[in-house]
Amino acid sequence: ERKAALTASVGPGATSDGHKVPLLANVGGPGDVPAAVEAGAEGVGLFRTEFLFLEDGRRPPSEAEQVEAYRKVLEAFPEGRVVVRVLDAGADKPLDFLTPADEPNPALGARGLRTLLDHPEVLRAQLTALSKAAEGLPVYLEVMAPMVADRADARAFAQACREAGLNGKYGVMVEIPSAALRARSVLQEVEFLSLGTNDLAQYAFAADRQVGAVSRFQDPWQPALLDLVALSAEAAAAEGKSCGVCGEAAADPLLACVLTGLGVTSLSMGAASIPYVRAALAKHTLAQCERAAAAARAADSAGEARRAARAVLSGE
Ligand code: PEP
Ligand code: MG
């Protein structure tokens, strides 16, 4: 019966009253594309490009190798959106040829955009390869930077995109609380935001995402995390720009309704979760999602927030 209900739920993501929330897939490379297409993803919301660089940790892939891999993913979503994240090396994704070996706190050191700004040739080559890969395709290319802390970071990334002649939109991930707190300022430099809730939780709660002993802080239902999501979504709305979520939070059907209620404009997740999220959204109106979001934010713990949202959405 559950399977039948899911099969019946196809088409674009939307609430029961027709508020559209594009459902996008997180992919790690061309191998993940068939499952995304099968699940009815409306595009890719997070293309983690690290896989290409991890194949040979001693050197970056050549431009030709990059163009070929990017093109395979871009071709799979004609007319769709594909959001590509530039290399996020460091901390939980170390790369021999880029990541400093002697940092006491790698998660707080050179990683993500910071690493790319220290190695501008790697960023330039990747942006050029992305532009070439999208040439002649009807796809809507968007490129974003991980680990952006402030407006200066956003400006440096935007400048690199312009210098590389990037043919598409550029945006930044909100993974550091400072970027959420000052989202309007960050948005003066770029065209969209995408919330990486895994890292946002890590940095908001000072809890290493790789340390099991503090794993309770990775729970995306924490009201403080919901507050940071709300701040970012409100800032994007005020600037007339989009704010998606591409962290694990988007894969939880109940939380997807809450994120929608907080003003998030698209949800990106592992392909397997898309049918469940689509079905959950289709059962509730935007106003119900907003009430669930308000109830969750009024809670004092992750557990309470989850129960409060569930009570609102199932009691209606
Ligand atoms: C995140 O941090 O939420 C995210 C989407 O990026 P990653 O998990 O790859 O760091
Ligand atoms: Mg991240």
UniProtKB/TrEMBL annotation:
The keyword Membrane does not apply. One of its GO terms (cellular component) is cytoplasm. Keywords: Cytoplasm, Kinase, Magnesium, Metal-binding, Phosphotransferase system, Pyruvate, Sugar transport, Transferase, Transport. GO terms for molecular function: kinase activity; metal ion binding; phosphoenolpyruvate-protein phosphotransferase activity. This is Phosphoenolpyruvate-protein phosphotransferase. Its main location: cytoplasm. It is an enzyme of class 2 (transferase). The lineage of its organism: Bacteria, Bacillati, Actinomycetota, Actinomycetes, Kitasatosporales. Residues 13-284 form the PEP-utilising enzyme C-terminal domain.
